[in-house]
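Input sequence (254 aa), recorded before submission:
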Amino acid sequence: MTLPRTPSFRLDGRRALVTGASSGIGLGAAVALAEQGAEVVLAARSAAKLGEAVAAIRAEGLLAEALPLDVADVATTARAVGEGGPFDILVNSAGLARHGPAAGTAPEDFDAAMGLNLRGAYFLAQAVARGLIAAGRPGSIITISSQMGHVGGIDRAVYCAGKHAVEGFTKAMAIEWGPHGIRVNTLCPTFIRTPLTEATFADPERRRWLEEKIKLGRVGRVEDIMGAVAYLASDAAALVTGTALMVDGGWTAD
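Predicted structure, token format:
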């Protein structure tokens, strides 16, 4: 009998671009890919923070370089991807939140959130896919979405709108780029403890809401998303496209 073998999670010889990579989920994603052997380009707006992150990854004997970049600047981002690519893997992790009651949403807050979370993510995926198609190479595009791309939430109308839209373009891109061997998926975390979420955790009412909704009884850690990123990037997920991988502790199981 010939037994089947699990496809490799290794990413040796592949180049990855991770945005929002100077801290939090983006940094965790970059480390996860580097641990599997990928050469990782970390992108974010802060050159200083990027330098610290790259130095720490290299100190572990892993492959990393820095690319200061504002994903909301679509034209500059497309040029950078064209010059630095093609990238076999994209983790589209740059994002921001402007939370507040829907009745009080200011147009400038709506535009800022959509400009990065939706517009920036869309055109970055486009730029990476164009490079892969031109090179005749397969690839994996992963956008960090959210459980809020599948449900609603208090004070999160703008954030939910953007993430629901991300889920939509992911499915459409997966259909279009599947014939080129390009897989397109989202990874949807629950609330992950990062510097950007500390204000939510500091509010006792919001903290109770989180703990009631997360069926496993705890908020997320950056480490909780790292295995999922490595999986979606690797050959272990070779038949996975156009879908959302929930890492939400059971939030959306209701």
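Checked by second reader. Helices lie at 24-35, 47-59, 74-84, 107-135, 157-177, 198-202, 204-213, 223-233.
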